[in-house]
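The protein record filed here.
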Amino acid sequence: MSMSISTVPQPSRLNPAFVETAAGLSAGAAATLLLHPLDIIKTRLQVDSSSHPFINSSRTVLRDVWRNEGPTRLAALYRGLNVNLVGNSAGWALYFLLYDRAKRTIKSYRGYAPSQELTSIDYLTASTASGMLSAVLTNPIWVVKTRMLSTAATDEGAYPGLYQGVRSILQKEGVRGCFHGLSPTLIGVSHGSLYFLAYEKLNTWRRKRNVAQGKGTELSNRDTIINTSLSKLFAGTITYPHQVLRARMQAQTTPGVKYPGQPNIGLIALIKSVWRNEGAPGFYKGMFPNLLRVVPSACVTFLVYENVKWGLPQLFEAVPGP
């Protein structure tokens, strides 16, 4: 029997904000541990500014990393894992907390009944606001992560870890260096907005079907996997180019900085450069390994998130009603 995961038992001794944060933290950590090597492949392809065909690039990058980098092959495939764990765990925890708070605020502001569904505009507003705030707060982590995943540990100037990376950026590039790629990141918030809109709408549709079939309103793990996959494919395909632009800007350094990155140019100039030198396919470099990573990653993330959100309050005795 599938576990029901659609609701958190109420009332509970646990603060809802704590439940959301713990569920997001667990979800981000689980997905990162399982799929980090695909993140390395995706990042290497995104920052590659050559005009070479990339049909077999994923295999080529994997072979090069596997054979030539790191003290061991496993270490090479998991370079930057600590940074990715911090970024994804903190990012998802923060996002889910802010997203839940945003939905509650919208419901209160618009005077909705507790059981009333939010509209598409409501979901877009909540996901966009929470996405933009969490993106700004976590951007320094992603700059370090991109630079670590796009270089070998033996490259000159390569960062050994998150702390060393942030310190080096602050010393050599200033605070501004921690926010390379923020503009395409903020544009990319549309990905999360489209994803959560599709996810929430699919969940609502599935609940209605379950009710019509006499199964109640609760969703199963299978429902979550299907809805997550469809939503991620939809949002990921539409908004993918921003990831290429973000990765290249995050891999950039200011002039005179000794780091194996790319020249520092603005967003518009970068778009023109990609279009001129690589054509439309340049904006989709790494999309295949990205989809191989993000679809199962999203499934793991939301399975863990929904189950922790459902199960955590079960560990504590519910507060008796009146």
Observations:
- The radius of gyration is 21 Å.
